Amino acid sequence: MVSGRRLALAVPPAAGKHAPRSGPRLDVVDLVLLGYLAVVTAVAVHRAPGQPECWWVASANVLAAVLIVLLTRAGLGRTGRTIREIYPLLLLPILYGELDVLNRAGAAVHDAVVQYWELALFGSQVSREWWQAAPSVLWSTVFHAAYFSYYFVVSVPAFWFLARGNLPAVRRFVLAVMTTFVVCYLVFVFFPVAGPYYAFPHPAAWFLDNPAARLVYRTLERGSSYGAAFPSSHVAATVAAAIAAAQGSRRLGLILLVPTVLLTVGVVYCQMHYAVDALAGLAVGTVVALGVGSLAGG
Question: Which are the contacts of 163, defined by CB distance < 8 A and separation ≥ 6?
């Protein structure tokens, strides 16, 4: 982990390709987030009469929009410019938590539809049956560890590039990852799917009796959002992060390839997502990362 002081110094004052943004300006990632906040706020206000807790979502989004405006003003110091580069990642826990408020208070989920797709494509409910057909404590440990690596894959590369003063890579990474999350989160709001984690009984105790699985389940119990299964944002964001990281550093991209592949397979084997969720996440992450990465400011 890089200290705050070093990160602040990592945003160089020099002009040119690696120069920080000068003057007030809304970049693509800011517009993506402001658009998302506007849509979700409208949904929250619409649902608030029957779900009063949605007013908290609307209020939080207004504060987030104010933060974005403040971070685009001129005259930011080095610390401010550093936060300017990575603030979207800092907003992620709030945006993800809002989904639980929006969906848990009575929103209809569409698991039956996705399960029908699963059956049509694969002939079975893969997430429920795969671990039973091929039981393995070893693979449970490996795949649950890969599942948890998601939190590092979607964040650490931004700080790694920032510490090296590679601002184009930081912006490309943050834009690709955040746009991927926004696409997934919008689907969650309008087409919530609970997923096999909620729809089926959890795997057998022996399958979860390893440190990695226990860590994952403790994390999910404290911070899982209902209705956020299709497409798998874990897969989508990890794929987008690996692609964007590779565009900034081929070596880093190759390093991230391993956890990305393991996670994509593991979310299904460990019964966290339907196989259809994983495929959709793979498609979203790839298309978004390749499509929007070049729009990041240089």
Answer: 2, 6, 7, 10
**Which residues of the chain, if any, have pLDDT below 50?**
1-10, 13-18, 23, 298
Q: Which residue has the tokens 């692609």?
A: 243
What residues form DSSP beta bridges with 193? 228
Contact 226, 192 (CB under 8 A): yes
The position carrying tokens 């389940």 is 217
- Torsion over CA: 286, 292, 294, 296 (sign): negative
Three-class SS state of 228: strand
Distances (CA, A) of 205 to 26, 99, 202, 209: 50, 29, 8, 6
Of 239, 224, 225, 226, nearest to 279 by C-alpha is 239
Alpha carbon distance 143, 226 (integer Å): 22
For residues 193 and 116, give the distance between their C-alpha atoms in angstroms, rounded to a whole number.
Answer: 13
> Are 36 and 91 contacting, i.e. CB atoms less than 8 angstroms apart?
no
What would the pLDDT profile of 129-158 be if each residue is shown by its tens digit?
Answer: 999 999 999 999 999 999 999 999 999 999
DSSP, collapsed to helix, strand or coil, labels residue 289 as helix
Rounded to a whole number, what is the distance in angstroms from the first to the last CA of the chain?
25
Residue 8: the pLDDT is 44
Tokens of 177: 């990852």
What pLDDT does 54 receive? Answer: 93
Residues in the chain: 298
Integer Cα distance of 64 and 111 in angstroms = 31
pLDDT digits (tens, 9 = 90+) for 211-224: 999 999 999 888 78
